Amino acid sequence: MNTVKTGWIGLGKMGIPMSQQLIKAGYPLSVYNRSKDKEEGFKAQGIGTAASPALLLEEADVVFIMVSDDKAINDIFHGDGGLLAAKASGKIIINMSTVSPAISKEVAAACKAQGNHYLDAPVSGSVKQAEDAMLVIMVGGEAGPFEQAKPILEKMGKLVMLVGDTGAGNVAKLAINTLLGIVAQGLSETVTLAQQNGINAEALTTLIGNSALGSPFIKIKGDAIVNNNYNAAFALKHIAKDLRLAKDLGLATPLGKTAYQTYQDAEAAFGEEDIIAVIKQVNKK
Ligand SMILES: NC(=O)c1ccc[n+]([C@@H]2O[C@H](COP(=O)([O-])OP(=O)(O)OC[C@H]3O[C@@H](n4cnc5c(N)ncnc54)[C@H](OP(=O)(O)O)[C@@H]3O)[C@@H](O)[C@H]2O)c1
């Protein structure tokens, strides 16, 4: 049994499997989710719940956050019963959501004034990697709290790396997701060209998978196209959001600009589907 008390905010597609790794590793855990129905499975496991982020922080030593976007982070820190309302100091708050470096810097300063530490620690990998504890975790913040948090983060990932000061994890993540958006669009355009010329998706993705271009991402998303399965593992609305954040960081290169626009155009129709539903958007063109 580990003695560090952990708390988890955000029980979405990623938050559930990631927090389950802490339970598996024997950490005491309490959870909070805005929509209470998502806490039910944890209650059934005997896991405690907190009525607000502030109450969660008061009872835990290390609190993890995995929510959608900057607005969600703003609500969790500044809203009623938010983290900044907690009577708590000496805690470590680890934000694993994909958000802007700007909001990380803002809430990190507020945490410091409160007497707590903040790390941004976004992840590369999706639901499958979260379930297998094979995420890649990139961290921004101070070395002291990072070293304290590292053994816990290692329960969720295969690589945990401090990349710089507050916000550096967010910058690294947005750079990686720019590549993700470009690759998903590239695969979609490649399959579309082949299909238009009589080669089916299964044949083409099998060929790519066995070529030097083969990768776990191409395999999973190629299978999704072949099986016509666009249920979200990583919702397209999230990559649309990430490319907006990358644009705010200065993304203005040819492929980056094109990917940005494609996902913005796709979001209204396909935002709730998986990122690879971008193939439906490129087919429209
Ligand atoms: N899915 C992936 O493959 C993947 C991979 C890497 C990184 N990410 C990133 O990880 C984060 C979470 O992704 P996900 O796929 O787990 O998302 P998700 O399934 O849509 O879950 C989002 C979570 O955020 C909470 N939330 C949203 N707005 C909120 C607000 N205003 N106040 C409080 N809570 C709020 C939701 O609460 P409710 O239940 O109340 O709505 C839910 O717990 C995102 O930043 C995403 O870009 C995702």
Automatic annotation (TrEMBL):
Residues in domain 3-hydroxyisobutyrate dehydrogenase-like NAD-binding? Answer: 167-280
Cite the 6-phosphogluconate dehydrogenase NADP-binding domain residue spans from the record: 6-164
In short, the EC number is 1.1.-.-
Read off the SUPFAM superfamilies from this record: 6-phosphogluconate dehydrogenase C-terminal domain-like (SSF48179), NAD(P)-binding Rossmann-fold domains (SSF51735)
Checking Pfam families in the record gives: NAD_binding_11, NAD_binding_2
- GO function terms (MF aspect): oxidoreductase activity
Alphabetically sorted, this entry's keywords are:
NAD, Oxidoreductase
PANTHER family found in the cross-reference section: CYTOKINE-LIKE NUCLEAR FACTOR N-PAC, OXIDOREDUCTASE GLYR1-RELATED
Protein name, UniProt field: NAD(P)-dependent oxidoreductase
